[in-house]
Amino acid sequence: MRVIRRSASAVALAGVLMAGLSGCFGDDESGGSKAQGGTGTTAAKGGVTVAKADKPIAQATFPSPIAAGATVDLAILGLKVDGRLADLTISMTPHVRAAGSAQRLTPYLLNGGTSLGVFLIDTVNLKRYLVVKDSSGKDLQTDYVTTNLANDQPGQLSFTFAAPPKGVDRIDVQIGNWPTFHNVPIER
After folding, report:
1. What pLDDT does 45 receive?
2. What pLDDT, in 10s, does the model give residues 80-135?
3. Coil, helix or strand for 6?
4. Cα 65-92-34 angle, rounded to 5 deg
5. Residues facing 147 on adjacent strands
6. Does the first or last residue of the chain, that is N or C, have fewer Cβ atoms within 10 Å of its Cβ?
7. Which CATH number goes with the domain that contains 47?
8. Rounded to whole angstroms, how far apart are CA atoms 80 and 27?
9. 8 A C-beta contact, residue 160 and residue 131
10. What is the DSSP secondary-structure string of 82-106?
11. Are 155 and 72 in contact (CB under 8 A)?
């Protein structure tokens, strides 16, 4: 009996989490979706969500090992806590010229063919937050290996973490092999 109760509880929890996450974006009249937290609207373009942020919280341009002279613009569009979860939304814009411009552009390849490894780093409590998994063990994040990005066009990616405790109003964000974004504000 006890095993059945735990399995039923796990299935119920997974359903609640998925229902909550599916409500993060609602359709607007333009056929795109409107992100919560004042990050503007997004529109689907060739299977990729194109970011249209009002104003990024933090942004920087870094070199990318995908090709000689390639760069990538990273922008943190929002970090919003909703209950026990925190949703991080970022924009990634590749700038690849010459021989690399015709090849497939994914966050994975822009990061040198290695795991994107997105983490929240809580310098107050000395903790690192990993992307949470659903009940089947799948990470609650954009698939950065298969997501195609268009050259010189922003693409939006999202990642879900356990929420940092109240009292933590800023956190560091690590994205791939690029330098860490420090003191990113958390919206509650």
Report:
1. 40
2. 999 999 999 999 999 998 664 567 899 999 999 999 999 999 999 999 999 999 99
3. helix
4. 165
5. none
6. N
7. 2.60.40.1240
8. 19
9. yes
10. ETTEEEEEEEEEEE--GGGGGS---
11. no
- Joined together, the tokens standing for residue 149 give 């990005």
Mean confidence (pLDDT) of the chain: 79
Q: In 3D, which of 65, 164, 81 has the Cα closest to residue 124?
A: 164
Region of residue 170 (phi > 0: left; psi between -120 and 50: alpha; otherwise: beta): beta
Give the position of tokens 């979860």. 85
Instruction: Please choose, from the candidates 80, 86, 76, 75, the residue with its C-alpha nearest in 3D space to the C-alpha of residue 37.
Output: 80
What pLDDT digit, counting tens, does each position of 39-63 carry?
333 333 444 444 455 689 999 999 9
Residue range 129-182, pLDDT digits in tens: 999 999 999 999 999 999 999 999 999 999 999 999 999 999 999 999 999 999
pTM, entire model: 0.71
DSSP letter, residue 12: H
* Residue 2, both tokens: 């006890």
Secondary structure of residue 15 in the 3-state scheme: helix
Enter the tokens of residue 80: 């919003």
Domain span at residue 106 reads: 2-185
CB under 8 Å, gap of 24 or more: what pairs does 57-61 form? 57/184, 57/185, 58/173, 58/181, 58/184, 60/178, 60/179, 60/181
- Structural contact between residues 114 and 130, judged by C-beta atoms closer than 8 angstroms: no
Task: Tell me how many domains the chain contains.
Answer: 1
Amino acid at 56: P
